[in-house]
Inverse folding.
């Protein structure tokens, strides 16, 4: 199995791509603030999931990278909230993206709480 097969990875990768496409319509003055931040944090979620899977030989590293992923997910939600409040995205779009983000958050927490199911060896 590859990290590409992990449901959390696949779901958030798709979400990060939605956010990327959506951020193309944000005002140019947001390029070095909101746009860069939301793209970076959303991409980091999937990146940290893939890193955690590669470090599954080491239980503490596996969990550490997943907690990083969870934190980046929360940061992405914050940037989405700024985008909504600045009226760069519609409320319906915001709600849809947050719902997808929360679903992945649940998957990440499942992985954290059940590392053995993902090939992590008991210490």
């Amino acid at each position: 199995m590859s990290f590409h097969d992990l449901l959390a990875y696949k779901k958030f990768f798709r979400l990060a791509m939605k956010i990327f496409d959506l951020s193309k319509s944000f005002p140019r003055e947001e390029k070095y603030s909101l746009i860069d931040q939301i793209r970076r944090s959303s991409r980091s979620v999937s990146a940290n999931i893939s890193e955690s899977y590669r470090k599954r030989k080491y239980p503490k590293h596996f969990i550490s990278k997943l907690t990083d992923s969870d934190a980046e997910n929360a940061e992405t939600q914050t940037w989405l909230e700024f985008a909504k409040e600045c009226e760069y995205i519609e409320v319906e779009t915001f709600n849809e993206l947050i719902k997808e983000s929360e679903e992945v958050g649940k998957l990440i927490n499942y992985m954290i709480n059940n590392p053995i199911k993902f090939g992590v060896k008991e210490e």
User: Anything to note?
Assistant: The longest helix spans residues 59-85.
